[in-house]
Design goal:
Keywords: Signal. With 115 residues, the chain is of the alpha+beta class. It contains 3 helices and 5 strands.
Length: 115
């Protein structure tokens, strides 16, 4: 009886963890918010490396991305997932010489980097 209960409970928990918001029909013009992860290391947003930002003359800081609203410029569906090109809604640059960034939408939503 106890094993049946634990099995049902584990199925419920796994269903809740995979039941997070997934992009179903993302189209151009949709607006999302960048959410800061706990370690400030964005895995599924393709950001420039910190040493490249230093070489371009910018102080490397990913903290300023937390809470930014971004707009989808283009969407590309491949066998690896759904990728989108994102730009800021206030038409400023993310970093020096970077107006857009690319994101893996499937994984960014499931890991909480976009909401």
């Amino acid at each position: 009886m106890r094993t049946i209960f634990l099995f049902c409970f584990s199925l419920l928990i796994s269903g809740l963890s995979f039941g997070q918001e997934q992009p179903q029909n993302v189209k151009e013009g949709d607006v999302f918010t960048i959410n800061s992860s706990s370690n400030l290391k964005y895995e599924f947003l393709k950001l420039p490396k910190l040493n490249m930002l230093v070489k371009q003359g910018e102080r490397p800081n990913y903290k300023k991305l937390n809470g930014l609203e971004v707009e989808v410029v283009s969407v590309e569906k491949t066998k690896e997932g759904t990728f989108a090109v994102l730009k800021r809604t206030d038409d400023e640059d993310f970093f020096i010489h970077r107006k857009t960034i690319k994101a893996n939408l499937d994984k960014a939503f499931s890991y909480g980097e976009l909401k």
